[in-house]
Amino acid sequence: MASLGDIGVAAAINILSVFAFFVAFAILRLQPFNDRVYFPKWYLKGLRSCPVHSGAFVHKFVNLDYRSYISFLNWMPSALKMPEPELINHAGLDSAVYLRIYLLGLKLFVPITLIAFTVLVPVNWTNDTLEHSHVTFNDIDRLSISNIPTGSKRFWTHIVLAYVFTFWTCYVLHKEYGLVESMRLHFLSSEQRRPDQFTVLVRNVPPDPDETVSELVEHFFLVNHPDHYLTHQVVYNANELADLVKEKKKMQNWLDYYQLKYSRNQSKRPRMKTGLLGFFGDEVDAIDFYTSEMEKISEEIEAERERIISNPKSIMPAAFVSFKSRWGAAVSAQTQQSRDPTMWLTEWAPEPRDVYWHNLAVPFVTLTIRRLIIAVAFFFLTFFFMIPIAFVQSLANITGIEKAAPFLKPVIEVHAIKAFIQGFLPGIVLKIFLILLPTILMIMSKIEGFISISYLERRSASRYYLFKLVNVFLGSIVTGTAFEQLHSFSHEPANNIPKTIGVSIPMKATFFITYIMIDGWAGVAGEIIRLKPLIIFHLKNFFMVKTEKDREEAMDPGSLGFNTGEPQIQFYFLLGLVYAVVTPILLPFVVVFFCLAYVVFRHQIINVYNQEYESAAAFWPDVHGRIIAALIISQLLLMGLLSTKQAAQSTPFLIVLPVLTIWFHRFCKSRFEPAFVRYPLKEAMMKDTLERTRERNLNLKEYLQNAYLHPVFKSGEDEDSDRVSAEWGQSSLVPTKRQSRMNTLLPGRFSGSSSPLLPEDIPEQD
Amino acid sequence: MASLGDIGVAAAINILSVFAFFVAFAILRLQPFNDRVYFPKWYLKGLRSCPVHSGAFVHKFVNLDYRSYISFLNWMPSALKMPEPELINHAGLDSAVYLRIYLLGLKLFVPITLIAFTVLVPVNWTNDTLEHSHVTFNDIDRLSISNIPTGSKRFWTHIVLAYVFTFWTCYVLHKEYGLVESMRLHFLSSEQRRPDQFTVLVRNVPPDPDETVSELVEHFFLVNHPDHYLTHQVVYNANELADLVKEKKKMQNWLDYYQLKYSRNQSKRPRMKTGLLGFFGDEVDAIDFYTSEMEKISEEIEAERERIISNPKSIMPAAFVSFKSRWGAAVSAQTQQSRDPTMWLTEWAPEPRDVYWHNLAVPFVTLTIRRLIIAVAFFFLTFFFMIPIAFVQSLANITGIEKAAPFLKPVIEVHAIKAFIQGFLPGIVLKIFLILLPTILMIMSKIEGFISISYLERRSASRYYLFKLVNVFLGSIVTGTAFEQLHSFSHEPANNIPKTIGVSIPMKATFFITYIMIDGWAGVAGEIIRLKPLIIFHLKNFFMVKTEKDREEAMDPGSLGFNTGEPQIQFYFLLGLVYAVVTPILLPFVVVFFCLAYVVFRHQIINVYNQEYESAAAFWPDVHGRIIAALIISQLLLMGLLSTKQAAQSTPFLIVLPVLTIWFHRFCKSRFEPAFVRYPLKEAMMKDTLERTRERNLNLKEYLQNAYLHPVFKSGEDEDSDRVSAEWGQSSLVPTKRQSRMNTLLPGRFSGSSSPLLPEDIPEQD
Fold it and tell me: Which spans are transmembrane here (chains A, B) (predicted)?
C-alpha cells in the first residue's frame, strides 16, 4: 500500500504527464496541417474552409510563429469564455447540458471537500488506533475512518456529515434538475420550426386486406383527428437501396478523382485496372469505366426504388403522421388511439436525423421477447463475461499456439517472444473485450428495437454504468470475479453484503486514487490531444483522400459519445460520494478530475465534436437517477462499515438516509421528469398561435411533406445533390448546418477577430 | 398433527355446519319480515316495495307454506341462472367481474387438482421414506413431497408439474385478462351518456392575484382547448355545510315521525322533551319544536351556503372541467397541460358518486410527503403491530385491572371470571384489532389523498393483502412475530429465506386445510346468512325506525367491500398455488371454497349488495398482479424446498420459472393495462359521432352544468328533493336507479313469474 508520500509522487508524475499532453497539444494544434483534426467543427459549420495560416507564407503546414507558442494554455480561458447561451446555439443543448454534468460534479464536491477537510480530517487524524494495532498502515489510512477506534463516540461526526452530504447532494441535484428543465423548456419554446414538432410516429398499423398502409393511416387519422391531421409518410424497408446508394456514392467519388486528375493533366486520360484493389484485371479508361458503371448503378437504384414503392411488402406497418399544429401532434403523441394498446402506437417522432430506421417495424410481441432475451444476455454478460475470455485466453497460450501451428514453434520458443505472449496475450484479450464492450452494448440496445439513436445511446449508457459498477467498483473492492461475488452474496445474509463491501472500502482508497489519476486525469489529457483521430486523419489524408469530399469525411470528428462518456463521469460521482465520509483524501483527486474534464470537454465541444442529433437534454433524468443510485450505495456501504465498528446504534440513524433519498428521487421524478417525456399543451398552443400570427401564408404541408422520407429516397428526388443525402448519417448534417446558421450567428461575426467566439489563440496576425 | 381421518372428520363437520347454515338461510330467507335483509337490492332498484307474501293472508311475518321449504337449496341454481350480460345490467360490471375472480379460481384449480391427483399423489404415495425415518408422520404427509427420499429422481415429476402449473396459470390469466378487457371496453362503449365521460378533474390550479379560480380555469381551457371546452364547476370546501345538511335531515326525519304520529291519532298533539335523549329538559309540542328548529337550521344552511359561495377561501384550487365531446375530455385527461407538471394536473373525473370530496384539494408537495409517511406507517403496522397490542394486553390483565380499579377486586377474584379475563381478554384485543384493520387501512389510504372511493378501496385491498401475506401466511409458516422474522431474515443469506420457508411448507398443510375450512367454507356460509345485518335490521326496525325512510336506511345492504373481500380470495389463490406441487391434498379444499363462494356471492350480488360506484372493473390489473405475485412466491418456495432435498440440480430449471413469470407479467401489463387506465381516442370519437347523429339538439351544457356540484349544494337547488340529495352517498343512488332502468330491463319483466331474472324460489303462488 502506498503512503501519502507515494501518492504525492504519483500525483506529481501524473500532473507532469498531463502538462506534457497539454504542451504537445499546444504545439500540434497550432500546425495548420492539423487544423482539420483540432477544429473540425468550424469546417463542418462552414465557418472555415482552409487553415488560417499567416499571410502569404509558405508555411502552409508548419507554424513558425514563436509567439503563438508562448501562452500554450490560453485555449483554456478561451474555451471557458463562450457564454452558455452561445454555446447552446453553437453546439446544441445536448452538449451544453452534458458539460453541466462536470459542473455539477464541481458544485457537489468542492464544498464537500472543504467540509470534509476541515471537519473529518482532524477528527480522523487525532487518533492513534492504527499505531497501537499491529496492522501495517500508512498516512492515507490515518486520514481515513480506519483510524477511529471501534465504538468511539467520534463516529457521530461521520454520521452527521453523512446527513450533511446527503442533504447537500439532494439540494444541488434538485436545483440542477430544475435548471436543466427550464433550459430544456426554453430551448424547445425558442426553437425554430422543426418537422418533429408536428410529427408523430405511428407503429403497428394493423394489417388490412382492403387498404394499403398509407390509405389506412390516412383514414384513421382523418376520422380520429379530423381537425388536426395534415399528411403522413409511410416507412419503407429500404436497407438494400441504402446499400446501392452507398455503392454509387463510392463510384461517384472515384469518378471525381479521375476527372480531377484528367483536368490537371489533359495530356493523358487516366487508366485503371478493374480487378481486385486495382492491381489485377483488364486495364480500361478510368473515366469511361466509372461513367458507365455509374449509369448502370443508377439504373439499378431506380429499379430498386420502383420495386420498393410498388411492392406493398416493402412498406412497413408504420408511418410518420404530421399534423396541422403542434397542439395536434402533442395530443396525438400523448394519447392512446385504439382499443388495442398494441395497435396504432403513437409517440413523438425523433428528429429526422435521430431516427434509427432499421428498427421502425419491429412488431409488439417481438419487442417484449427481445427485451427479455437482452435482459438475460446482459445479466450473463455482466456476471459471466470472464468465462469466454478465460477460454480464449487458455487457447491463446504457448502450447495452444504450438498445437494449432506447429511451424511457429521455433519462433515462439525464443525467450523474448515467449515472455511477451505469456505476459501480454491474456491481457490483450481482456483489453480488446473492454474496448469492444460499448459496441456490444450498443448492438444489444439496437436488438431491443428502440427507434432513435439518442435513446439507443441512453440505454447503452445505463448498461455500461451497471457493468462498471459490478465489475470495476465491486470487482475492485471484493476480490474474485463478478460471478463469484454473486454466488457468495447470494449465500450471505442480506445485511452482510453492505458490511462485507463496506469494510473493504477504506482499504481500497489508494487503489482508487491511482485509478482516478490514470483513468481520469490522463484519460482527459489524452482526450484533448486526440491521438487516434490525429493519426488516422493524417494516414487517410496521405493515402486515401482523393477529393475534397474525402477530406471532409476523413475529418469527421464524430459525436460526443454519451454512451461511454457519461458512465465514466458517473463512476467518479460514485467514488466521490462513497469516499466522502470514509476517506476524504480521495476527494481532491475527484475535484481535479472534474475541473480538467470540464475545461477539456468544453474546448472539444466548441471546436471538435459535431452532435449527430439534438435530444434537448433528454438524458438528464438518467444522469440524475444514477447520481441518486450512487448516493444510496454510499449510504448503504457506510451503514455496513459503521455496523462493524461497533457503532451499531448508528444504524437507525443511517437507515433514514436511503429512505429519504428514495423519497426525494420519487419527488423529483414526478416534479421534473414529465418535462423530459411529454410536451405540455399550453406550450404547444403558444407556439402555434405565435406562428399563425407571424406567418399567415405558411405552407406547412409542403414543409412537412418529405421531412421523414427515408434518406435514400431523397437522393433520388434531387439528383444533383446526391452527395448531400447519399448516406443518411451524412445527409443529416445538412439541415443542421442550415438551421444553426439561421438561428445562431451570422458567419460575418466569426471572421472578425474581436468576436469572443473565435478561437483566439490561432495566429491571425502575422 | 392430524391424520387423513382427522381431516376427514373435520371436513365432514364443516360440511355439515355449512349445510346447517344453508338450511337456516333457507328458513330465514322465506320469512317475509326478513325480506328486506335478504333482498334489499330489489327494493333499492324500486322493483319491490313490500314483501311478496302469499295472497291476502295474515302471515305477513311468517311464511307457513311448507312447500317452499322443501327445496331449500333452490336459491343456488337460481343464483347461477342469471346470464352474465343481465347480471352486468342488474348489478354493474364491477360486481360481475368480481364474480369472475371466483370463476378464475375454479378454472385454475380444477384442472390443477385433477393433474396433481393423477400424477403427483401416486408418485408421492409409493415411497416409504417416512416409514423408514423416525419422524412422526401421518397420511397427509405420505401424500406430500415429504415422502420422497432426498436426492430422488422422482423430484423431476414435481419440477415438470411446476412448469405445467405455471404455464396453465399464465394461460388462464392471459385469457381472463383479455376477456375482462373486452368486457370493460364493451361496457364503456355501450354505456349511456354519463357526466364523467365528458369531464376531467383539474387539480392544483395555480394561485393568481387577479383572477378567481373559476375565471382562471375558464381562461386556461378556452385558450388551450378552444374547440372543446364547454363548462366547468369549481370545487368548494363544504364540509361544514355537509354537517349542517345532515343535521337538518335528521330533524326532518323526527318531524315526519311526529307528524305521522299525529295524523294517526289526531286527538293528541305529540309532545317531547328538548334535553338529552328526550328524557330531560322542558316538555314542548314536538311538531312545533321541530318546525321551528327546521326553519332555524334552514336559515343557517342558507347563510353557510352564501358564505361558501362568496368566500374565495372556501373555493379549492380544483375544478371539474367538462368538454363538448368525449374526444376533448379524453385528450385533456391524457395530456400534460402546463410546463410545470405539478400544476394544472388533469385526470379523468370519477363518477359523481365515486368522488371522495374531502381529498380534492390536497396540494402536490403534501401528497408525496403524505405517501412517504403512510408508507413508513404501513411498514410499522405490518411488522410491529404486535407491540402496542401486547402492551394493551399487558394492561388488560388481572393485576392491571386490580390496580386501576381496586373496588373490582372481589369480583375479579372469582375463579370463573378470572379465568375468563385471563383466557379471553388478550385474544379479544387482537381480534378487535383485526376487525378494525380494514378500517385503519382505509383511513391510511384516505390520508394519502386519493380522490375516488374506488381507488381508495383498491389501495386498501393491496395493503390488506400484504398484511395477510406477512402476518398470516408467513406468520403461520415461520414461528415468531413478523418483526422477529424480519430480523432473522435480514441476518440470513438471501437464498436461505426461500429455503427456511420452503422446508416448513409441507408441515403446515394440515393447518392451512383447517384454516380453509374454518375461514373459507364457514366464512362463506356465514356470509349468506348475513347474521349481523339481520340482527341489526331487526333491532333498528323494532326500536328506531320511525318513518319509511328510516326503514330504507336500516335496510341499506352496503356494497361488496372490495378492500376486504378480494385479499381474502387472493389468499386462497396463494395457498392453492403454493401447495399445488407440494401437498396436492390441499387443492380440493380450495376448489370447494371457490365453488361455494362463487354461488354464494353470485346470490348476494343479485339480491343483496348495492354498489356505491361503478369503476368498470378497474381493479382487474390488481387482481392479476396479485395472482402473479402468488405464483412467483410459490415458485421461489418450491425452489427453496427442493434445494434442501438435495435435488440441487433442479435450481437452474426452477429459476427459469420466476423469470418467465415476471416477463409474462410485464407483457400483460403493456398489452392489457392501458385499457384500464386510458380511454382510446378512437372509441371516444365513435361514441361522439354516434351521439351527434342520433341527438342533434342535445343541450350538453345543461346536462353537465351541475353534474359535479358538491352534493350538499344540490339539496339547496331543489328544496323539495332534500331527501334525495341530502347525504351524498345516499343521493348517488338516484342516478343509477334511473340509469339502470333505462338501459336494462323494464320493470314489467320482473313481475312476470316466468322471467329467469326473478328470484324464483320466493313463493309467489299460494
Answer: 6-28, 101-123, 155-174, 372-396, 416-444, 465-483, 571-601
Helix (H) or strand (E) holding A345: strand A345-348
**Of B163, B114, B172, B148, which is closest to residue B635 (Cα–Cα)?**
B163
Q: What residues of A are in contact with residue B495 (Cβ under 8 Å)?
A: 490-491
Which cell numbers hold the place of B613?
Answer: 360506484
Residue pair B603/B629 in contact (Cβ under 8 Å)? The answer is no
pLDDT computed for residue B178 by the predictor: 92
The predicted model gives A170-179 an average pLDDT of 94
B594-598: which pairs have CB atoms within 8 A and are 24 or more residues apart? Answer: B594/B102, B594/B105, B594/B106, B594/B109, B595/B106, B596/B18, B596/B520, B596/B521, B596/B524, B596/B525, B597/B102, B597/B520, B597/B524, B597/B569, B598/B99, B598/B102, B598/B103, B598/B105, B598/B106
Amino acid at the residue B17: S
Take residue B225 and report the three cell numbers written for it: 382547448
Beta strands A315-323; A229-236: pairing state? antiparallel
Residues in A 682-741 with any Cβ partner in B closer than 8 A: 682-683, 685
Alpha carbon distances (Å) from A253 to A155, A248, A551, A728: 70, 9, 11, 17
CA gap B194, B615 in Å, rounded: 13
- Give the angle B735-B740-B741 at the CA atoms, nearest 5°: 100
Range from A161-170, B188-197, B235-244 that averages highest in pLDDT? A161-170
CB within 8 Å: B337 and A681:
yes
Q: What is residue A200's three-state secondary structure?
A: strand
Contact A482, A470 (CB under 8 A): yes
Q: What is the length of chain A? A: 766
What's the pLDDT at B1? Answer: 47
- Residue A666 burial (CB count, 10 A): 14
Joined together, the cell numbers standing for residue A649 give 446504534
Degrees to nearest 5, angle at CA A294 with A293 and A298: 120
Residue A312 has pLDDT above 80, yes or no: no
Give the span between the Cα atoms of A177 and A619, in whole angstroms: 11
Dump the DSSP string for B412-433: HTSHHHHHHHHHHHHHHHHHHH
- Is 0.95 surpassed by the pTM of this model? no
Q: Residues A635, A170: contact at Cβ < 8 Å?
A: no
Q: Which of residues 193-252 of B touch A (CB under 8 A)?
A: 220, 223-225, 227
Structural contact between residues A484 and A469, judged by C-beta atoms closer than 8 angstroms = no
Q: Which of A671, A682, A683, A685 to mutate to test the interface with B (most CBs of B within 10 A)?
A: A682
Q: Closest Cα of chain A to B51: distance in Å?
A: 45
C-alpha cell, A277:
484493389
| B683 contact residues in A (CB cutoff 8 A) | 338-339
Q: Name the strand (E) or helix (H) holding A201.
A: strand A199-203
Give the ipTM of the model, two decimals please: 0.73
Quickly list H helices, B645-680: 651-672, 674-677
Q: Is B347 on the interface with A (CB under 8 A)?
A: no
In chain A, domain spans: 4-193+470-678, 195-350+679-708, 371-448
Higher pLDDT pick, A76 / B70: A76
Note whether A383 contacts B: Cβ–Cβ < 8 A. Answer: no
**What residues pair up with B234 in beta bridges, in sequence order?**
B319
Answer for the pair A630, A571: CB distance below 8 angstroms, yes or no.
no
Helix A364-384 to helix A453-468 angle (10° resolution) is 30
CA distance B406 to B390: 23
State whether B680 and A368 contact (CB < 8 Å).
Answer: no
Task: Give the nearest chain A residue to B656 (CA atoms).
Answer: A376
Integer Cα distance of B21 and A655 in angstroms: 52
